[in-house]
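Worked Example 4.2. Consider the chain below.
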Amino acid sequence: MTSFTSRCTIIAAIALSAGCRTPAAQTVASTSISDSAQVQRDIEMLASDDFEGRRTGSVGNNRAADYLASRYAALRLEPTPGKDPSCAAGCAASYLLPIVVFESIRDQPPARLATQNVAGIIRGTDRALRDEYVVIGAHFDHLGRQTVGAMDPHSGDAIRNGADDNASGSAAVLSLARRLALRPTKRSILITHFSGEEQGLLGSARFVENPPVPLATMVAMVNFDMVGRMRDDKLIVYGVATAAEMKSILDSANASAPLRLTAVGDGFGPSDHSSFYSKDLPVLHFFTDSHEDYHRASDDADKINVAGEVCVIDLAERAVRTIADRPTRLTFTKAPASARAASSPSTGSAYFGSIPDMGASDEDGMRISGVSAGGPAEKAGLKGGDLIVEFGGKPVKNIYDYTDAIGSYKPGDSIAVVVLRGTARERITINVTLTRRGG
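Applying the procedure from the previous section yields the following structure tokens:
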């Protein structure tokens, strides 16, 4: 097993020791002790065999949603608007947001999955700002017993419990909800847990298309995905270039008990923050990096570095409070795509720069949720919401057709892309010159 000795862990140990002399240190000690125990309990529950890996649309996924709703109720979060008004704070069922999503698997018709997101509100304290929201979220689904998407197909129908992916992120959101409910911020906080992420951000895509509060009232989204395996104080944070003020906020938040940050500017990437960034919202995405148990049956709760996760939660809380208490909103900026962030899937070296909307319906074509700043697609005039139906003269009915089509081209090739745009489905042909990634 990896040793978890680090500055973060040492500082936490000092704060938790009997030698904590100041009231502030005693507060940190009390918070860290209770957080560590509850974070561990939440991860162990969500990653237990009872939930059978929480695959979207499964009984285990529904049980996990019910568990999250019960935790919301214990924290006395408010139900989101539009729910049964007779169900006041503390009514667990009111936190569930039922949705239907479509899973696309190569050579199979789209599968209809009935599932649910979970959402609740911590009301802000400032009369002028409380109708604005900072969204804090994580996905709670995983692979279940399926080998689709698994890195260990030889394990057959073994339960893939997803302790790090993403019981860890789900527990982090619950921990932040507890802290923020005890000491609310000026703006309101919208606490969210998404289903369908493993099938392609399906739950968060549905969430931003049918939000429980208006998108215009959301000022930022903070996402957690795989934050339970910190090594050597290392933390990756995406989205630092999605608002003019974001880097300064993150640097300031990291000044106390600093972690070894890798800051990535791009707001797109393979997790639910992408759905919000595609709607021009500033985002931060916390991630302690991949590991050998990713998407395997070996991703179990006993391998979680709880002390390290609490350090991530501490840093994130400071950043969230700064964003939520600012007198003005963040200044949104389009960030250049990074090589690490997911953009055009491609089997070749040609780069297009579109962001597939994996949460689209079962209609023929590949809808895009956005385009990477400065990429060929943006320069040619493609927009989020466009439905690609032809790529270089080849029909596109799904993401696999698109992947096959772009893989047959090389950088420098000029191709015609046919899209359907808007509610009128206007058919438009756009000429695009492909490049190399980063070119």
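Residues 138 and 193 are 5 Å apart (CA to CA). The domain at 31-325 is CATH 3.40.630.10 (Aminopeptidase). Compare this with Example 4.1 before moving on.
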